[in-house]
Amino acid sequence: VQLVESGGGLVQPGGSLRLSCAASGFPFSAYPMRWYRQVPGKEREWVATVTIGGGIRNYADSVKGRFTISRDNAKNTVYLQMNSLTFEETAVYYCNVMLSVGQYWGQGTQVTVSS
């Protein structure tokens, strides 16, 4: 199983970024996918989940209305569109999948919100 995040970077407050997570090694279309984030010194925080067909999406209250999770099963990729970013959302963002044998994480992609 491999999850590879990309798309992080430096963005100004109020700006937008689109993260991608390319998955391999498991039947991608058969599993919900999740995004998490982690600030140094704090616990990893769940951000969003998308179901296998993409029809149901759930979000943490802190990102509702600003973030959109989506997936492309043909490309084995899950995305996180982030709008109106704030300083407090500076973190490493991870994608995640829970399989029957355990859960897997990518290496993360750094998002820095700074003026």
Q: Can you put this structure into words, describing what you see?
A:
The protein has 115 residues and is an all-beta fold. Helices cover 0% and strands 53% of the residues. The protein contains no helices and eleven strands. It has strands at residues 2-6, 9-11, 17-24, 33-38, 45-50, 57-59, 67-72, 77-82, 91-99, 102-105, 109-113. Strands 2, 4, 5, 6, 9, 10 and 11 form a seven-stranded mixed β-sheet that branches. A four-stranded antiparallel β-sheet has the order 1-3-8-7, with no helix packed on it. A hairpin with a 4-residue loop joins strand 7 and strand 8 (77-82). The protein is globular and about 40 Å long. The protein starts with a strand and ends with a strand.
Rg (CA only): 13 Å
Uncertain spans, ≥5 residues at pLDDT below 50? none
The count of strands amounts to 11
Proportion of residues in helical segments? under 10%
- Class inferred from helices and paired strands: mainly beta
The gross shape turns out to be: globular
Q: Secondary-structure element sequence? A: EEEEEEEEEEE
| Number of helices, counting only DSSP H or I runs of 4 residues or more | 0
Average pLDDT, to the nearest integer?
A: 97
Tell me the strand percentage band. Answer: over 45%
What's the story with the biggest beta sheet? 7 strands, mixed
Span from first to last CA?
37 Å
